[in-house]
Amino acid sequence: MVKNERSKVKYIMVQGTMSSAGKSLIAAGLCRIFRQDGYRVAPFKSQNMALNSYITEDGLEMGRAQVMQAEAAKTKPSVYMNPILLKPTDHYGSQVIVNGKVLGNMPAREYFAYKTKLIPDIVRALKKLEEDYEIIVIEGAGSPAEINLKENDIVNMGMAKLVDAPVLLVGDIDRGGVFAQLYGTIALLLPEERERIKGLVINKFRGDKTILDPGISMLEERCNIPVTGVIPYMDLKVDDEDSLSPRFRNRKRGWINVMVLHLPHIANFTDFSSFEQVEGMEVIYTTDPEELQEADLLILPGSKNTIADMEWMKIYGLDRAICSFAATGKPVIGICGGYQMLGKIIEDPFGVENGGSIEGLGLLPVQTILGEKKHRCQSQGTFSVKEGPLQALDGISYEGYEIHMGQTTAHRTLSEFTSNGSGYYRNNIYGTYIHGIFDQGEILRILSSSLSKTKGLHLPEGTIMDQTEWKNREYDKLAKTLRESMDLAKIYEMMGIRPYEN
Q1: Is the alpha carbon torsion for 438, 445, 474, 130 positive or negative?
Q2: CB–CB of 295/258 below 8 Å?
Q3: Using an 8 Å Cβ cutoff, are 270 and 239 in contact?
Q4: 324 neighbors 293 (Cβ within 8 angstroms)
């Protein structure tokens, strides 16, 4: 067991009444606050289920939520912050990644029986973090009251018990019924689990806080737990964890419209969050073949099940719509799985996904074979674009990362788009394995300028910065809001840190 008495490290855990209650964001805000207050702080989530992932400097894979929280803490992301990552491959199972490496694919029932064998990996990860950090902010998953999943829990109350961490329980008032959420969650817990909850947090509140006072008084009386925060609804531009992202519901049109195909198994849609910086540019996720024709730039994103998503595209006529759009000469970019789909064929001889093969869109003369070994690395290179609508990118340096099972072979006459065989292009069709290539401010400026000139437009003047700088501003806004709406003195006290000085 990792007990606080063996270490000077202090823990705080953020759990929620449901998925998307705001755990990830509140954990990130606490990371930034503790960092601002002079502490060395790290995020931690023992088990994360998400299709958004990241490759660390040492070539290991982890969930994007803990990367976001590490950024907020101003520290380097490490797989020790997320030792177990589950990436759903279908409705019944996931690819299981342990310590940044693929363990294998498991049906849900098989993983449920297996997961306690991974407790030593969780403990080792925490011990490594304890060597370098003074505070560790732990995020739970879903709800601790999911009674069908409580046996052998390793991510909620089981995790809190493992490190003897105080727990903040977060409810989402924006969905309604927040008092029932919080009270009902507590009522379903065992007495010793209730004892671990030291504070309640009402998240995403809109309006006059005093209206809540009668409900808060009754909640505190019935639960015998203080409400340590009422956090206002925040419109922050930071990376989301999963497919519950509100970004997917954006239907607003701009001067420049970037259409992203909303694949059933869409992965790493954080690739496109940098576009939100650009005034007049809108990112719309769509499954509508007719809507694709409104795009100024069409993007095929990453996928965790490329063959299944390619088959889905054909069933709904999106393959024909994409080819029709490509014929207009407007740019089409495929990233990772989307790049594979642009090619002639995708083969899965080892059953990495579902086995078999499928014809791609045929827009690029490339073919892909899904291999048993995942390619993971951070990448740097230079765009090579001698013609076409994105020619202005030629010679511009980029940074990003690769994470894919496929090996793509290009026709020998095809021109490179990104370095070292990581991507190719022909005319207005561009494919690459590099994630995060739009995060540099210079690339974003050139891309938005090229798209606007094609339409004869001039986008409003504004500062476009590297995504790192942009996100740091957002983390500071988050921390400021939490300082104003949470009882930080009480949170420090529950961690055993006294006195708290702002």
Answers
A1: positive
A2: yes
A3: yes
A4: yes
Same fold, 4-238+473-494 and 256-454: yes
Phi-psi region of 311 (alpha: psi -120 to 50; beta: other; left: phi over 0): alpha
Q: How far apart are CA 67 and CA 70, in angstroms?
A: 5
CA 59 and chain centroid, separation: 18
**Helix (H, G, I), strand (E, B), or coil: what is residue 147?**
coil
Cα distance between residue 42 and residue 134, in whole Å: 8
**Which candidate in 31, 223, 404, 435 is catalytic?**
435
Pick the catalytic residue from 265, 336, 377, 411: 336
Say which residues have a Cβ less than 8 Å from residue 54's Cβ, sequence separation at least 6: 61, 62, 63, 64, 67, 77, 401
Give ∠ CA 11-14-15 in degrees, rounded to 5. Answer: 135
Is 336 an active-site residue?
yes
Tell me the pLDDT tens digit for each residue of 327-354. Answer: 999 999 999 999 999 999 999 999 988 8
Cis check for the bond before 499: say yes or no (omega within 30 of 0).
Answer: yes
CATH architecture of 256-454: 3-Layer(aba) Sandwich (3.40)
**CATH assignment of 4-238+473-494?**
3.40.50.300
pTM here is 0.91
Cα-based distances in Å from 398 to 68, 128, 184, 383, 472:
20, 32, 49, 7, 20
Q: Tokens for 161?
A: 């018990």
Q: For this structure, is 411 an active site residue?
A: no
Question: When comparing pLDDT for 247 and 344, which is higher?
Answer: 344
User: Residues 146-163: pLDDT tens digits?
Assistant: 988 888 899 999 999 999
Predicted local distance difference test score (pLDDT) of residue 236: 86
- DSSP β-ladder status, 266-267 and 302-303: antiparallel
Map out the domains of the chain as residue ranges: 4-238+473-494, 256-454
Collapsed DSSP state (helix, strand, coil) of residue 259 = strand
